[in-house]
Each structure stands twice: as C-alpha cells, then as structure tokens.
Amino acid sequence: MADEQGNNPDENGPSASPFARPAFLVSAGLVALIVVLGAILVTRIASSRSDATSPAAASPAATSSSAPSASDPSASICGLRGPSDPGPLTVAPAAAWQYEGATAYPTSPEFGPGKTVDAGYRFCFQHSQAGAVFAAANAIAVPEDDAARQSWAEYFVSSGPNRSGLLMDLGGEPSSDPTGIRVQIVGFKVLSYTDSAARIDIGVEASGSAQSVMGSYVYELTWQDGDWKLNSDAPTPFNFSTVQSTAGYVPWSP
Fold it and tell me: Which of 72, 120, 142, 248 could form an SS bridge with 3, CB 3.0 to 4.6 Å?
C-alpha cells in the first residue's frame, strides 16, 4: 500500500526481507546504519536456533486462568475489554512510554500490554486497531536478555505452517551487536484491519554514528489465543524498508 507521497513501505530501501540477516558493514556511514536498522529486529528476537514447534511451554495462554473461552474467541487472554473495530484510527492513542534499553515502547491500561511474565517479556493487547498498533510497537522493544527474547519469540509467533521455520530463521548468533543504535517510534499506519488480522506499519527513526535514517516496520498480525501474534501463515510476516519521510503516518512518539 503506497502512502500519500507514493512510497510503498514494502518496496523502499535495500532490505526487502529482514530474514536474510545481512552482514553488518564495517563503515560507520549511513549505508551501514540502514543495514543495521533492517537487521536489528531479527537480532533482538533471535531464538537460539531451536525448532520450537510447541508454544505451550512459553505461552502464558497455557496456564492463564483468563484464557479466552472456546465460545468467545474474541476475548482477551488477560481480560482487556474493548470493541474489536472502533473505526479508523486517525489519532494516536494515549500512551505511557517506558524503555527497553534505549528504545521506548508504549503502554496503556486499556490497550496493553496487560501482562508481563517472569521471563521479562510483555503480552496481552486489546482486540482492536489500537491494540494491534500497541502490539506491533512493543515488538520493536523486545527484551535484550537472550532467554527472555527466546521466550517472547516463541509466544509471539503464532501457530501455523511457517512457525518452526520462522523460529529457525530468527535463530542463530547475530552477525553483530546493534548497541549504539537508537531506535525511536515516530508514527504508525493501520494498513488493514479485520477482527482476525491486522497489518500495521510502525514508522521509526534510527540514529547512530552521527547519522540517522527513517524506516518502516510492517507487521502481519493475527488474533490467536486471545492476543495479537505474528502471523506464521505468511512466510515473511514482517518487513523493514527505508522511507524518505514519515509523512502520512499518524504521529506517535515519547
């Protein structure tokens, strides 16, 4: 979907698929920063290259007393209430911003995250457009601890035909440490939304080594087990691209 200036967030920039895990460049210039930004999400949610085909061990849904009932699949896993589709989201929802390392993420008692597990990751977002936006934005600021990041990835990737392959592709040792790169959310777009699926574009600005670049993370989400999950029915459920500007995004930042 193109924005108002004709930019397609899936086609701008050199990193069409972050699963390629491109090597980090030695140069500290802008090109290196673009590559780092494209790979930073993969680095953060690496799952230690394990074929974790069963989410039960890591998923709060397996033990939560607030798991949605079979008669109400739209219910939230932690009881967050709200309309499944309140209409177009054209104004940024109110948020209290917290930090994971140097990256700010939004929180809200209404939209989520509603729970944080002992492992250190956050989950449970409202079944609404705003809830899907909060889920995507929180995915940019996942835990830096390896064990917590692995547990989060196993929870966040939905059940589906590409689940085990997706976890494998996200695994392994990162090619470099992205420390020193500061990523800040600056806006969002709801590209599409239904009760069962959402396509969310999070606009970011990354800076480091006296350079900065604007980028776009597009997430394919599905409503499963009472929460928004990364849709493993899609072989590439998130994409990074550079953008010339974030014009057309709903402004949203700490």
Answer: 248
Long-range Cβ pairs for the range 87-94 (8 Å, 24+): 88/129, 88/190, 89/129, 89/130, 89/133, 89/190, 89/250, 90/250, 91/250, 92/187, 92/188, 92/250, 92/251, 92/252, 93/130, 93/133, 93/134
- Please state the pTM of the whole predicted model: 0.75
113, 97 Cβ separation under 8 angstroms: no
Residue 37 CB partners (closer than 8 Å, separation 6+): 15, 181, 183, 204, 206, 213, 215, 240, 242
Summarize pLDDT for 124-152 with one digit per residue, the tens.
999 999 999 999 999 988 777 778 878 88
